[in-house]
User: Fold this.
Amino acid sequence: GREAARASAPRRPAPRAAGRQTPEPRLLAVDGLDVWVARKRVKNVSLRVRPAAGGPRVEVSAPARTSDALVRAFVREKRAWIDAQVSALADSPRLRAAEATPEEVAQWKAVVSACVPALVEAWEPLMGVRAGKLTYRNMTSRWGSCQPATGRICINVRLALYPPECLEYVVVHELCHLLEHGHGPRFRALMDHFMPDWRARRDKLR
Assistant:
């Protein structure tokens, strides 16, 4: 028998789409519940409930090829957990902060800026430190910040929404950074020394 030698031409890679972007989240109704679905380069379907203007927002991240039916089944399976999270958020300062008007933020700043200087003055001699300039901001990701080189301390005005002991905890936390820059064992030991119940206070901010 005669065999013909065949040479296969090398395949050229398919051109990539220029500037391909992740699609915007899409609204999906599941048993009367609004769910925002984002299809991404992820391996598993995941879920979170976060504060947003207008009320708690349910968000699902799913692999690109995940069907709406599978997302609906996943949400239904987690519905009890979702309802509990929505209920907790509806009464939380986090949601109030997300929906705040500029006037409300100004009120928080007035309260916090009236309380912090006295707290700093009380704690400085106890800790052997001296703070620099005190500033106040409406921050979403941190309760305070400290620049050890200058002593400048910034406090989140949203602390006006929490019990007074939380504000005092954040003040001491930032003053402690004048003694220890990081959050390692020495920092925790200093916090244990100056404010033994600091962990319980911190937990009220979560």
